[in-house]
């Protein structure tokens, strides 16, 4: 296994890129620690698959280097990188049995038959296919074939990393949950570096210790699920994580106060110097309806089970508030923003308070 370093990496599918807009992957420096469980999260088209294919060697980056440990593998073929990759759709050998499919990567590397048998049985148990080991892959459902692909990706113990590219797309919801739990267990047991690509925040947050969020070809933040929720570094992370996402309201920042478009003042509890398009950001969970605070107009209330989502308007912008099911609705609705939970954003990036500040 190895630490994977991406150094000044960038990729354009165009042979003559003219500017940033021609890069599917903009310049990027990143380290995947040996043994980490990472999710790579982002909307469709943000560059996740491009990045995975560069790590596995299916694609050569147009700029920069990739290191496995200290070794530069930028020009090394896939076979030398010792990476297992599981794709969105099944890749199985139809004429082989399930057992032969699972054993294939181990046979290829000349492992002992006894070891292969033991390892295949173990993986088959994990993916719930012990009963099917003697069946040919041809004729199995897409779901079953994808489980074989997953099993094959995990059967080797000696890989540098296992890359999963939206591997559960074709799996039914109940099995999805089970397989995700199994992957986590496998990670704990064997400590492989795992990179799991998804556009689904639930998948990312339940699988990974560290979530790397990509937006328009850039890594905008890497953090634990809690860090991404509490302190999104970029407004995209605020929108993308959480349900509903973070509220952003345009505001002029004046030292330790934010002035909203209607003139309402929000005390920030610390001083900020912010230029460009400035906004305050707050999660719906940290905004509470009350009789005092900033006046809001309520547009709609949605009951989503354990709580309600209040769709409101604050200072001319859409504003969501989560509210316990049994909380009373104020007669004259105002919203109270929890001061320690406010973030200040300038041109989409979170701004730290000035030295000596405490927000
Ligand atoms: N072979 C290719 N040739 C040209 N452009 C490509 C190629 N593959 C991907 N792109 C473009 O590069 C950008 C990033 O694509 P990529 O597939 O890496 O994103 P993604 O985040 O994995 O999206 P998805 O979840 O939809 O697979 C997109 O704009 C895509 O259209």
Automatic annotation (TrEMBL):
What are the boundaries of the signal sequence?
A: none
Q: Give start and end of each ABC transporter domain.
A: 4-241
**Any one Pfam family match given in the protein's UniProt record, by short name:** OB_MalK
UniProt lists the family membership as follows: Belongs to the ABC transporter superfamily.
Q: Does the keyword DNA repair apply?
A: no
Its recorded name reads Carbohydrate ABC transporter ATP-binding protein, CUT1 family
Q: One GO molecular function term?
A: ATP binding
Q: Which InterPro entries match?
A: AAA+_ATPase, ABC_transporter-like_ATP-bd, ABC_transpr_FbpC, ABC_transpr_MalK/UgpC-like, Mo/tungstate-bd_C_term_dom, NA-bd_OB-fold, OB_MalK-like, P-loop_NTPase
Keywords (alphabetical) are: ATP-binding, Cell membrane, Membrane, Nucleotide-binding, Transport
Where along the sequence do coiled-coil regions lie? none
CDD domains in the cross-refs: ABC_Carb_Solutes_like
The residues that cross the membrane are none
Gene Ontology annotations for the cellular component aspect, listed alphabetically: ATP-binding cassette (ABC) transporter complex, substrate-binding subunit-containing
RNA-binding in keyword set? no
